[in-house]
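Hi R.,

Here's the chain you asked about this morning:
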Amino acid sequence: MKAKYVKQGLGLLRLIILVLLVGILSACKQDEKEIELSFIKTSYEIYVNEEVEVLLRLKNVKKKDIVFESENPDIATFENGVLKGVSVGKTTISIMIKNKLNTRKYIYVDVIERVDEEYSITYYLDGGKNHPNNPTKYTKEQLPITFYEPTKEHYIFDGWYVNASFTSEKVTQLKTGNDGNIRLYAKWVPATYQINYHVLENARHQNKTSYTIFDLPFNLTSASLSGYIFKGWYLDQEYTNSIDTIDISIVGIRDVYGKFEKAYNITYHLNEGTLPNDAIKIFSKSDLGLKLPIPTKDGYTFLGWYDNPNFTGEAIDTIEEEQDLVLFAKWSGGNQEYPITYNLNKGTLPEDAITKYKENETITLPIPTKEGATFGGWFLDAQLKTYKISEISNGTAGNITLYACWLYEVIFEIEGNDIKEMVIENDKVTKPEDPQKEGHTFDRWVIIVNDVEVEFNFNSPITSNVRIIAKFIENVGNN
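And here is the predicted structure, written out as tokens:
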């Protein structure tokens, strides 16, 4: 019985060992079948600098056990599952499981230059000039792109729009993500130009102070200033470059200078003659040297202009001085009779005083009288300031009105010394400087009215002869 059990035990052991060997061999065979290294793609076309993840199929293999090698690293590299293009060309990447040559596999790589899709940008400038930095095409990789402002003479840029009616929003840049061809329309508004008019104080004019090209051309109207003649507009302060119209050739000027010259009047006493329609009546400095007009009178010959009604001195034919002129026309050839009117201012004419004269005669005027007054002459003006005459000269024509000038004697009495002055009736006498007297202080000027000293009022008109006396006050402490 014992031997039988031993034999049975050895048989069982053999069976167990056999089973184990079969299992081991089966396991080894099974391991070799389960190891796997493969690719989803075996060839790649990539761009320079592009990185692409290579998807591997691994079974029972760890990534750290993967060995890779680029045939030409200058063209493409492979690292940690990422394929990267370096330069244009073709190469091969080999991949295998470490120490297992029979697992080597290959990836074929073609590296190409990136050619991005280009889109056009078309600009509609409406006569403007585009900025040189604005591109005419773009790729998506170049975005964003900021647009620069174009220019157009006499206009201000008001934005880029994507439609010609300018109803879209303004476009300042192409943002990331934009694609497609672009049309941009430039919107313009007319530039407004300012003009500064440099004129004398209180001068007036009605010219435009601002304008656009749509206002062109326009004429500059004259400025005015009382007592002056406007001589034109100029582009410079020296008045050398005159201007009367703003047109396209001088758009943008900012300053215009008005030239003024002091005005002088010409008063013509025509003696029944007639001036030409274009006769100068106001002149200024720049008119010096101009010829005076020649009047006409039927049946008469013009003998010249004179600066006095007596026609004394030389005849005047040109404007020579910067001052007002009063001119009298002298004629010959007539024998017409004209009346003389005397304004005597309460005086009396001699009984034989003439009341008419003829053009071809020279008449000496009469001397009137007035109690208490001295005759100061005949004047042609009621103010008794100018045009004093003593005769009506040959060549004078027309009705004449004469005004008698009366003078009164004003005596300033200063300590027995008299200073005499003749004053025109109704004029005021000028107050003299305060007189001096040793040891005294001047007090006032007085007149005697009804034996009473009355202080004289220098603002009152002179209507009679008058004696004005200086009064002094003795200084205290001079005795």
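One quick note: The chain has one helix and 38 strands.

Cheers,
M.
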